[in-house]
Write a structure and sequence with these properties.
The complex is a heterodimer. Chain A is mainly beta. Chain A is built from seven helices and 33 strands. In chain A, a hairpin with a 3-residue loop joins strand 9 and strand 10. The termini of chain A are far apart. By secondary structure, chain B is mainly beta. Chain B has two domains: 142 residues, Immunoglobulin-like, CATH 2.60.40; 123 residues, Immunoglobulin-like (Sandwich), CATH 2.60.40. The longest helix of chain B has 10 residues. Chain B is globular. Classes of the chains: A mainly beta, B mainly beta. The interface between A and B is medium-sized, with 31 and 21 residues. The structure holds copper (II) ion (CU) (2 copies).
Chain lengths: 690, 284
C-alpha cells in the first residue's frame, strides 16, 4: 500500500505540462520524500492537560504576535485562520473564494463536525455554507486550534467526523503588566493589506486583553496572471476578554468578539456577501475546588448572533436578482468538573444550546410590474440540544485507556408558520416538533514500548440532520447545479469508527502511520428526485436529502520528521483518502492522494523554510455531485524571517513567496475548480512594546 | 383561504366577529347588519323594497362573484325572511343580449340573508352594460326589480375566468373560485358551465381539469404535489389542491378533459410549449 501510494504522484507529475516545477518537484521528492508545507512547525504534540498522548489530536498553534516571537518558525504570521488550518495535517478546506473556507476533517465538513470557539457552539447563518464558524474569528484573538478526530471530538458536541475547538488567546493572570504590539502585512497576489494590534494588561488579580485586526484584499490573481473576479474581501475583527480573580482560585472571566466582513466576493458561487457579522460573547466562572473530590469546576454561559446578507447586486448578469439574508442566534452553556486519583482522570460535563436559524430568499422579477417572489429557505428552526459528557482516562502500567461517552437529546421546532406550510407541501404529515436521542461511546487505547507508540480506538456515534438537511427549502448548490430540499423524517446518521496509529519516536527522527475507518449507516446525502421541478433558473434538477444505506470512509496518513541538524529540520506527510457508498459509488469531496514536505531552518534570530505540497490526480470523483477529475499539482513556497531587538522592544520581519513557480492549479476541494492564487509575495512586520 | 360557510356560521352566532378576509377590528354591535363586514355593491329599489347586494369584493368583476342578498321592507323597516328569489344577469351588447353562468339564490342559516354566485365573462363599457333582474316572491306575492350594474375587470388584471370553445364545439365557461393564496398546499376549486344558448348555462358534471402551476418569471418552474380538479357533486364544483412554493406571480395552466378523458381545451406545458391556452393567474 505504502509504496503504491508513493509511486503515484511521480508518474503523474512527469506527464504534466508544467515541466520545470515538476522536475524540481521530483528533485525535492527525492530528497524530501513527501511533504507538508507549514504543518510541522505548527504542530505541537502536547496532550491536553498534559495527559498521556492518548488522543490522536492535533494542536495548531496560531500566530498571535507573542506566539510569532516565540515560534518564529511560522511561515506566514498574519495569514488567515483558514490558511493556518489548511496547513495542518488533518484539516482540509473547501474553497468558494478567497474568504471563509470551510474546514473538512476526515473528508467530512460542517454538519458532520463540531466546531466551537472555547467550547461555545456557533452556527453559520448562510444556507450555502459561505460562513463557516472559522470565518467569524481571526488569528489575532486565537492561540490555538484543537483538532480531534471522530468521536474523540465529542467533548464539545455531537459529531461524526471530529471537532475543531478554537482557543481564544488570554493573558490569563500572567504577570506581564502592559503589553502592546502592532503588526502589518501585505501580499502581492491580491494586494492584501493587513493591520492589527493588541494591547493587554495582566497581573495576578486582573487581566484585560484587546485586539483588533483589519484585512482588505482585492481580486486575487491565479497562476499565469489570470485575475479571479469577485474574490475581494474586507473584514475586521475586534475582541476583548477580561478576567478577575477572587483569590483562592475563584475566577470570573468574560469574552467578547465582534467580527464583520463586507463586500466579500465568492467567485465560485453565483452570489456574494455584502455583510457577514457576528457578535460572540460569554461569561465564565472557574473555581479550583468543587464538591467532593471534584476540581476545576468551570461554568460558561454564552450567546452569539450571526447575520449573513447574501446578494448578487455586484454581478453583471444574473437570470434573476435575489437577496438571501440569513440569521443564526445561539444561546448555550456548559458546566464541567474534573476528578482524579492515581489511576483515573475523570471529566464530567453538562452542556446545552438553543439555536434559531432563519433564512429567506427574495427574488425580483425582471418584469417590474410583477410582485417579488419570497420564500423561507430555513423556516426559523429552533434547535435545543442538551447533553451529558463523561470521560475517564485510566492508567494501566505503561498503557492507558480513555473511555468516553456523550448522551444528548435534541429537539427541533419549526417556529414559522409560513415555513412549516412550505415544507408541508412536500411532507403533508410533517410534525412541527421532533425529538431525537443521540449517543456516542468511545474507547481509546495507548501504549508504548520504548520508542514505539501505539494508539488504537473504537467508537460509535450518531448525529441529527442539520437544519439544511432536515428543513432546507430549495437551497441551490452551484457545485452540482441542483436545488436541495430537506427531509424532516431523516434518520440519524450513525458512524462506527476504528482508528490506529503506530509511531516510532526517536530523539532526531520520528515516523508515524495513522489510519481511521468510518462505517456509516444512514449516511445523509442529497439524491436526485426526477419528479420534482427545479426552482433555480438553469439548475439541472432537485435533490432531496436521503439516508444512504451505508457509506465507508477511510483515511491513511504517514508523517515523518527528521532533525538533520540542530537548526535544520525536515518533515513530511503523505495521505490517502477514500469514500464510497453501499454500491461502491464515490462520495463527493474526498481528497485524492496528497503530500507535503517542509524543510525548516532556525538559527538564533533567523528562520527560513522551503515547503512543497501537492496532490495526485483525483481518480475517484463523482460527476453526479458536480465533481470532475482534478489534475495533480505541486506547489512550492519559501519564507525568511528575522528578529531585531530595540532595547526591550522587538521587531520581527518576515518575507516569503507562495506558489513560487506561479502554477495554475485547483484542488479537489476548490468549488467548481476555481483556481488557487498564483505566485504571491508576502511580508509582515511586527513590533512589540514590552 | 376563505371559508364563507364558516364566516356565515360566525355571523349567525353573531356576537362580535372578525371576517377571515378583512382586518376589521371595529367591534360590531349585536343585531347589526350581519353583512356589515362585506361591501354593499348595489341596492335595487322597487315595490317599496330595497334589495341590497353584498359581496366580499368591492365591485362586480368578471369571474366568480359570490353575492349576498337581503330584502328590506321599507315600510316595516325590517328584513324579509323566507322570500323565494331567482335572478337573471343580462348583458346588453350592441348586437345582442346574453346572460352568464349563475347559481340559484339560496337561503342561508340567517333567514334574512340569501346567497348565490354569478360569473360574468366580460366587463361592461360605455355602450354595453349588464343588468341584474330579481324575481322574488314574498308571502305568495310576486315582485321583480331590475337595475343596471357595472361589471369591471379585476383590479390586478389577473385571469380568473375562461370562456372558450371546446374541441367538441361547445362553448364552456370555467371560473376559478375565490381563494387567498399562500405558500402551502392550497385548496383550489373551479366551476364549469357550458353555454346551451345565450341565456342558459348549465353546470357540467364529471369532467376533469388538470392543473400545472408555473412561474413564468422564474424559468417557468412548477411545484410538487398538486391535485387535479375533480367534480364534487356536493358542492357542484371542481376541487383539487394547488401547491405554491413561493409568493409571486403564478400561471395555473389548465387542461379540460371530458368524462372520456378527451382534451377539450388546453395543452401540456413543456420545454417547447411555455403555457396552455387555458389558464388562471394568481399573484400574491
Ligand atoms: Cu451565503
Ligand atoms: Cu418562483
Amino acid at each position: 500500500m505504502k509504496t503504491k501510494i508513493m509511486g503515484l504522484p511521480h508518474r503523474r507529475m512527469v506527464a504534466e505540462p508544467k515541466r520545470v516545477s515538476y522536475y524540481i518537484g521530483i528533485l525535492c521528492g527525492l530528497f524530501f520524500f513527501a511533504t507538508h508545507g507549514d504543518a510541522q512547525q505548527l504542530k505541537v504534540d502536547i496532550g491536553q492537560d498534559s495527559v498521556l498522548p492518548i488522543n490522536l489530536s492535533e494542536v495548531i498553534v496560531i500566530s498571535s504576535f507573542k506566539e510569532t516571537l516565540e515560534h518564529n518558525g511560522h511561515t506566514k504570521p498574519l495569514s488567515t485562520l483558514d490558511e493556518y488550518l489548511e496547513a495542518s495535517q488533518k484539516v482540509n478546506m473547501i474553497k468558494r473564494g478567497a474568504y471563509a473556507w470551510e474546514p473538512v476533517l476526515n473528508d467530512m465538513s460542517s454538519e458532520r463536525l463540531s466546531i466551537t470557539i472555547d467550547g461555545m457552539r456557533i452556527f453559520g447563518a448562510c444556507t450555502d455554507k459561505m460562513d463557516p464558524i472559522t470565518s467569524y474569528v481571526d488569528v489575532s484573538n486565537l492561540s490555538e486550534a484543537h483538532v480531534c478526530s471522530g468521536q474523540q471530538g465529542a467533548e464539545h458536541g455531537c459529531t461524526i467526523g471530529g471537532s475543531i475547538d478554537l482557543k481564544v488567546e488570554k493573558s490569563n493572570f500572567r504577570p506581564t503588566d502592559w503589553v502592546g504590539s502592532l503588526e502589518m502585512g501585505g501580499e502581492s497576489g491580491n494586494n492584501a493589506q493587513i493591520i492589527g494590534g493588541e494591547l493587554n494588561y495582566s497581573d495576578e488579580r486582573f487581566y484585560v486583553d484587546t485586539d483588533i485586526i483589519y484585512r482588505n484584499a482585492e481580486n486575487y490573481t491565479a497562476g499565469g496572471g489570470v485575475e479571479v473576479p469577485f474574490s475581494q474581501f474586507e473584514k475586521y475583527n475586534l475582541s476583548t476578554n477580561a478576567g478577575y480573580s477572587f483569590g483562592d482560585d475563584r475566577k470570573l472571566s468574560a469574552s467578547f468578539i465582534f467580527d464583520e466582513a463586507r463586500d466579500v466576493g465568492y467567485p465560485a458561487l453565483p452570489m456574494d456577501v455584502s455583510l457577514a457579522q457576528a457578535f460572540i460573547g460569554s461569561v465564565s466562572w472557574l473555581q479550583k475546588g468543587f464538591l467532593g473530590g471534584f476540581t476545576d469546576w468551570e461554568t460558561k454561559l454564552y450567546a452569539n448572533k450571526v447575520t449573513h446578507i447574501m446578494d448578487d447586486s455586484q454581478r453583471p448578469d444574473v437570470p434573476i436578482r435575489m437577496d438571501m439574508p440569513g440569521w443564526s442566534d445561539t444561546f448555550g452553556y456548559f458546566s464541567q468538573a474534573k476528578w482524579k486519583n492515581e489511576k483515573h482522570q475523570v471529566l464530567l460535563k453538562l452542556d446545552g444550546y438553543y439555536n434559531l436559524s432563519l433564512a429567506e430568499m427574495t427574488m425580483y422579477p425582471n418584469d417590474p410590474y410583477e410582485r417579488t417572489m419570497f420564500m423561507l429557505t430555513w423556516p426559523d428552526v429552533r434547535t435545543l440540544n442538551n447533553g451529558f459528557y463523561a470521560e475517564d482516562v485510566i492508567k494501566i502500567k505503561e498503557s492507558s485507556v480513555k473511555l468516553s461517552t456523550r448522551l444528548a437529546v435534541q429537539n427541533f421546532n419549526i417556529a414559522d408558520e409560513f415555513g412549516l406550510n412550505s415544507l408541508r407541501i412536500f411532507y403533508p404529515e410533517m410534525a412541527r416538533r421532533q425529538t431525537r436521542f443521540l449517543r456516542s461511546v468511545s474507547a481509546q487505547y495507548h501504549t508504548n514500548l520504548k520508542a514505539v507508540h501505539f494508539n488504537g480506538g473504537l467508537s460509535y456515534g450518531d448525529r441529527a440532520p442539520s437544519v439544511t438537511e432536515g428543513f432546507g427549502f430549495y437551497l441551490f448548490n452551484s457545485f452540482d447545479n441542483h436545488d436541495y430540499i430537506g427531509d424532516p423524517d431523516l434518520k440519524n446518521e450513525k458512524s462506527l469508527e476504528g482508528n490506529a496509529k503506530i509511531s516510532l519516536e526517536k530523539e532526531r527522527f520520528s515516523i508515524g502511520l495513522e489510519g481511521n475507518y468510518f462505517r456509516m449507516a444512514d449516511y445523509i446525502l442529497g439524491e436526485i428526485d426526477p419528479a420534482l421541478s427545479v426552482m433555480t433558473i438553469g439548475a439541472d434538477g432537485v435533490k432531496i436529502y436521503r439516508n444512504l444505506e451505508n457509506a465507508d470512509l477511510y483515511n491513511v496518513s504517514l508523517d515523518t520528521e527528521y532533525k538533520i541538524l540542530k537548526e535544520l529540520k525536515w518533515s513530511g506527510v503523505v495521505s490517502y483518502h477514500r469514500g464510497t457508498d453501499q454500491d461502491g459509488r464515490n462520495l463527493p469531496f474526498i481528497s485524492p492522494f496528497a503530500y507535503s514536505s517542509n524543510l525548516q531552518y532556525v538559527h538564533m534570530t533567523f528562520s527560513g523554510s522551503l515547503a512543497m505540497r501537492g496532490a495526485g490526480r483525483q481518480v475517484n470523483f463523482n460527476p453526479d455531485f458536480g465533481e470532475d477529475e482534478t489534475d495533480a499539482y505541486t506547489v512550492f513556497s519559501l519564507s525568511l524571517g528575522k528578529q531585531f531587538k530595540f532595547g526591550s522592544d522587538d521587531l520581527y520581519v518576515k518575507l516569503g513567496v507562495e506558489n513560487l513557480f506561479d502554477a495554475y492549479y485547483s484542488t479537489y476541494s476548490d468549488w467548481k475548480n476555481i483556481p488557487r492564487m498564483g505566485r504571491n509575495f508576502f511580508m509582515t512586520v511586527s513590533y512589540a512594546i514590552n | 383561504m376563505k371559508t364563507i360557510k364558516l364566516s356565515l356560521a360566525a355571523l349567525i352566532l353573531s356576537v362580535t366577529f372578525t371576517s377571515c378576509t378583512k382586518d376589521n377590528d371595529d367591534p360590531i354591535v349585536v343585531e347589526e347588519n350581519p353583512l356589515a363586514d362585506y361591501n354593499m355593491l348595489t341596492t335595487l329599489k322597487a315595490n317599496s323594497h330595497s334589495l341590497e347586494v353584498y359581496s366580499d369584493q368591492d365591485q362586480f368583476t368578471i369571474g366568480y362573484n359570490e353575492l349576498f342578498i337581503r330584502i328590506k321592507d321599507e315600510a316595516a323597516d325590517s328584513y324579509v325572511s323566507d322570500a323565494d328569489i331567482s335572478w337573471m344577469p343580462v348583458m346588453h351588447m350592441t348586437e345582442m343580449m346574453h346572460s352568464c353562468p349563475k347559481s340559484e339564490v339560496s337561503k342561508t342559516e340567517n333567514v334574512s340573508v340569501y346567497k348565490g354566485y354569478s360569473i360574468f365573462q366580460m366587463p361592461g363599457n360605455a355602450d354595453e352594460y349588464w343588468e341584474l333582474t330579481f324575481d322574488y316572491t314574498i308571502d305568495g306575492q310576486a315582485y321583480n326589480a331590475t337595475e343596471r350594474i357595472e361589471v369591471t375587470a379585476p383590479v390586478d388584471g389577473k385571469k380568473k375566468v375562461n370562456s372558450f370553445m371546446g374541441s367538441d364545439d361547445t362553448r364552456y365557461i370555467l371560473a376559478m373560485m375565490p381563494m387567498d393564496p399562500e405558500v402551502k398546499v392550497n385548496d383550489f376549486s373551479a366551476v364549469l358551465f357550458k353555454m346551451e344558448d345565450m341565456m342558459t348555462f348549465p353546470i357540467v358534471e364529471d369532467y376533469k381539469v388538470t392543473i400545472d402551476p408555473r412561474m413564468p418569471g422564474m424559468g417557468n418552474h412548477s411545484s410538487p404535489n398538486n391535485e387535479d380538479l375533480n367534480y364534487d357533486a356536493a358542492s357542484k364544483a371542481y376541487k383539487g389542491k394547488l401547491s405554491l412554493t413561493m409568493t409571486g406571480y403564478w400561471k395555473i395552466n389548465l387542461k379540460l378533459m371530458n368524462a372520456d378523458d378527451e382534451v377539450l381545451k388546453g395543452e401540456t406545458v413543456s420545454e417547447e410549449n411555455e403555457s396552455s391556452s387555458l389558464f388562471f393567474e394568481i399573484e400574491f
